[in-house]
Amino acid sequence: MKKVVVFGAGMVGSAMALDLSQEHQVTCVDINQNNLQPLKEKNINVISSDFNDSEKIKAIASQHDLIIAAVPGFLGFNFLKEIISAGKNIVDISFFPEDAFLLDDLAKKNDITAVVDCGVAPGMSNIILGYHNPRMKVESFECYVGGLPFERVLPFQYKAPFSPIDVIEEYTRPARIVIDSKEVIMEALSEPEYIDFPHIGTLQAFNTDGLRSLIKTMNIPNMKEKTLRYPGHIDKIKFLKESGFFSDDDVVVNAQKVKPIALTAKLLFDKWKLGKEEEEFTVMRIIIKGVENNKPKTYQYDLFDKYDPVTNTSSMARTTGYTATAVANLILQGKYDRKGIIPPEYIGEDENCFNSILSYLTERNVIYRLKKS
To answer: pTM of the prediction?
Structure first.
């Protein structure tokens, strides 16, 4: 039995801790006692700690075989650097804005496997593309993904399974896409389009910065990632954005300095917070087009996953967390040991790893349905 520590006991971190505890000795670390208590009641070791306490974090990490990072995105890069410096393998889902490859030399020097962006998208989307890319000449990659509540409550028709500040980051960070083999910078929320999905109806897709490592690792002429929301949501977000509510620059109100984005996130927290047993879903469509065996080929993967009422686990926690725990088990079992910064597409290249991850997810009823043409 291996010893695993999960840093972050939010919705996704808790789901990963519980999943890994089926086969491993798991400890979960968080500053929030309300997050830790339910895990403690399920016989998972818990530690209360601030993620900024570098010495304590390193001390905890040193006692474990593998680190899982589910910390807020703004802490993610420095946290990853600390873990690599401590000489521990890590699977990370913090989706920080910095370039993880800046730590590649450090990871290789310390003989560390550091898997980053290991969620649903980025994450499973990368793994799928990573599998097909060496096996065909890929000409285009499209990923459409979103997590939404079934109940549509105006004005936003949205609930966030993680911190609003991380969602707002998706709406403000410029989107990088690839057109005719050139990286193109697009404004987030741009190029909206409507797409129909079974079981759901019509959703609206718009550009977000989800390609991340794929821009560096994949030589594919056309690639884009779009986020899915209910129609009408984007207009409300654009209004807030253009009105300055997402600004990180201080404004003075009654002689007090305030960051508009911090206030906005605080105000949206309750409005966007998923209820404890609120039903929601994750939808993703991946379309890979190219040439295989000298013939045009299209692979379309569709995911539609719902909140699990039996385990009270959100769909976003399941689809994000179980991808990460599938990869964690590959590392713990010695089935994947490439060193350095490892984006998920590297793992997908290995057919055994790819099939193992799909099987792991299927066992948990997270099912990717494939259509070929």
So the answer is: 0.94
